[in-house]
Amino acid sequence: MAIEIKVPSPGESITQVQIAKWLVADGETVEKDQEIVEIDSDKASFPISTPEDGVIRIKAQEGETVAVGSVLAVIDVQNSPVHTPTSPPIHPSTHPPIHPSTRPPVPPSASPPVRLSTSLHASPLARKMIEEKHVDPATLTNAFPGKKITRKDIESFIHQKKEVAGTISFTGTRDVDRKKMTTLRLKLAGRLVSVKNQTAMLTTFNEINMQAALKIKEKYSDAFKERYGIGIGLMSIFTKAVTIALKEFPQVNSLIDGDELVTPRYIDIGIAVSAPKGLVVPVLRNAEMMGFAEIELKIKELAGKARDNRISIDDMKGGTFTITNGGVFGSMMSTPILNPPQSAILGMHKILERPIAVNGQVVIAPMMYVALSYDHRVIDGRESVSFLVKVKELVEDPAKMLTEGLDPIRLLLDL
């Protein structure tokens, strides 16, 4: 029996996709739910898995643009190995025993199987793949600390190693490498150009003393991780501060739709995440209703999906405001570009110890520059600057987040 693997619809209005990379070879035996190919659309990249065990016959090539619904491959289920055949019994009269001195030598090219420690936290299928692919278990333990390693983890790990191995080498020749841009990259390029041409983008800057936020991480991270299974990150602190500031300045949460100004009564925060295919922006929906733990867990889930190329279009739909952190790559200051149709984006940067004046004294403090890029057609300078100052106040004094940005002492005194 043959099963056709067709291109699924990535979303409305998308009629074509590009085959980014085959993860298996033509004629290879594949297992049910194994990821076999990565597809690029103009909105997202996503993998396609096999519905059954069998032998794959590839019908479309890498880099080819194909229509939604067309056949990518065929799975020949009849040729699938159902069981491992056992050797027929050896009759002693016709096959004399082989003595150790007469055993055929092992070919030198054959790699010895990887011996796995029983303490390795991996599924049975993952352990089998580790042995077959000769993956060093120690590198897997470092790559997936504290996680039960699955078959998909192994596939992702091997795929990333291949990408690193394929890095361009500079040998002093005058050669160049050419490859077709992905559909996603082409669409992204067009969107970025349109942002510069069709919006009145401006950027305002400020700096934040991160001492209070870092003390929270240092003091409460262990207890937080013990209870929720994840540490406290700066992104959750900024996300919470942004949701509170957006409630006070809803214009920053607005967007233009034709000749109308739309101001949602909800806050969906897009978190820019670096993925193998490029930057993606998954969305935390109704972030204004989330606590720190919910924000951290959701960011971890979406970031993991992005790194494994499992992020879906639904994960990235919508969004009323975006946060991006160039500081993880060492950026000290930048002007982030808008994520249309949103009207504002906050850029975080690297924390550096710098001398600042505190109560007339020069002290060394961990400082971060922050940048707010905004569409001046929607947001005036007063609102943009006031919004960024509010975020600064909340991050520098996180206790105010408990009272939605109000001074807790004034509340205590009924003022």
List descriptors.
single chain, 415 residues, OB fold (Dihydrolipoamide Acetyltransferase, E2P), Chloramphenicol Acetyltransferase, seven-stranded mixed beta sheet, 10 helices, 19 strands, 29% helix
Could you describe the 3D structure shown?
- With 415 residues, the chain is of the alpha+beta class.
- The chain folds into three domains: 2-76, OB fold (Dihydrolipoamide Acetyltransferase, E2P) (Beta Barrel), CATH 2.40.50.100; 113-162, no CATH class; 202-412, Chloramphenicol acetyltransferase-like domain (Chloramphenicol Acetyltransferase, 2-Layer Sandwich).
- It contains ten helices and 19 strands.
- Residues 82-111 have low confidence and may be disordered.
Number of strands: 19
What's the CATH topology name of the largest domain?
Answer: Chloramphenicol Acetyltransferase
User: Helical element count?
Assistant: 10
- The residue-averaged pLDDT reads 82
Low-confidence stretches: 82-111
Strand content: 15-25%
Shape: globular
Q: Structural class, from secondary structure content?
A: alpha+beta
Order of helices and strands: EEEEEEEEHHHHEHHEEEEEEHHEEEEHH
Give the CATH architecture of the largest domain. Answer: 2-Layer Sandwich
